[in-house]
Amino acid sequence: MGRCPGCGEWNTILEQQITASRRHSGQPVSQEPSAVLPLAEIQGDRQPRLKTGVKELDRVLGGGIVHRSVILVGGDPGIGKSTLLMQALAKASSAGHKVLYVSGEESAEQLKLRAERLGIGGGALLVLVENELETIIEKIEATSCVVVVLDSVQSVYSRSFEAQAGSVSQVRQVAGRILETSKKGSSACFIVGHVTKDGALAGPKVLEHMVDTVLYFEGERGHAYRILRAVKNRFGSASEIGVFEMGDCGLSEVANPSELFLSERPENASGSVVTSLVEGSRPILAEIQALVTGPVPGQGRRTCLGTDSQRLALMIAVIEKKLGMALGDQDIFLNAVGGVRATEPAADLAVASALLSSFTDRSIPPGTLVFGEVGLAGEVRRVSRAAERINEAARLGYRRIIAPSANADQVPMPSGVEMVAVSRINELIPVLFDAVRPKKRGK
């Protein structure tokens, strides 16, 4: 085009590269360039962590809420995420903190009914029912609350995108704007996200890399117990858990999960053994159950609940090779009772003990606790934090500890507790069953 239609001049039109502008409603983006600073000159944030008043939640967070952090709480719909966060905000508001609960799924009247069921009063707990992101950010900045809960990220949409609420683009945009608002402002934010079956489409998996902390609320709807597990934490341990019990008046904390997980353990039952697991900073006693039945035609079935199927296959291979027991044609079912995850190597010796107990149909003597890692050569290797595991067992009345020989000389034993050290899996049968070698079954 040679002549400009605006001014009528010739040869004045120039080609220019046009880039897509960033659509961003609300606060304008700062044009000031970021400064490059030496690490030694940066002043750290010295503000103490905010205690929510829910000790199990504070434990999983690493001691409380970090100032201006963003925490993603994921879990299946109806598992108790909203209940937990409303109870935490209520306790924080009772301590004098100004907090805000943003709901995109419930009306104000429904929130009031839930609060009355949970026994939550007024205080400084503010409620906002809104689905539009720009309005939510405006209210967060206007109220200057210390903690904000966004429930849920799938129900909020931004005017900047034409996609529906809950889509991948909307979820990322909402989380990104909330993260920017928290980092520039003064509020810490909990983002609630529902998990789909695969956890990939518009769920928390899309947001895990963006936020500071990722918590997953786990549990079966048919059971009253819930486990809050940290899978990412920039300010604390990423392997900590908190245990709760769901009741008519909301969630109550379980201060001693070891007693909970062992409360219904059957006495003198074959295939049942107690082990000690370490979750974050907490040693937990858990029951491992095994059921070995057969022989069956062809290859036996393998089913694991709360345990690692690969480590089960390893234990079966070691038992067959080192102890001469044929388990290939046996159906084997392995379960970590209570919803715990017995996936650490320290549970190897307990898994092997449960398999031997069920296969021979002999019960392990009461008051016995087993832990240790088993190698492919049949050796029993040392485990970390053995003293904490033994002290927790002694506190709950366990007086016989079967553990690796490498840990025996390093751990002071509590009064009245006997340590039975094993260095190879061949030594396990005599110490488990009073030196009576069981008869082989199957082939």
Give me some keywords for this one.
443 residues; alpha/beta; Rossmann fold; Ribosomal Protein S5, domain 2; 2 domains; 9-stranded mixed β-sheet; 4-stranded mixed β-sheet; 23% strand; elongated
Number of helices: 11
- Describe the sheet with the most strands: 9 strands, mixed
The termini sit apart by 90 Å
Strand content: 15-25%
The number of distinct structural domains comes to: 2
Mean pLDDT over all positions? 87
Structural class, please? alpha/beta
What sequence of helices (H) and strands (E) makes up the elements?
HEHEHEHEHEEEEEHEEEHEHEEEHEHEH
The strand line-up of the biggest sheet is 3-2-4-5-1-6-7-8-9
CATH topology label of the largest domain: Rossmann fold
Q: What oligomeric state do these chains adopt?
A: single chain
Q: What is the CATH class designation of the largest domain?
A: Alpha Beta
CATH architecture of the largest domain: 3-Layer(aba) Sandwich
The overall strand count is 18
**CATH homologous superfamily label of the largest domain:** P-loop containing nucleotide triphosphate hydrolases
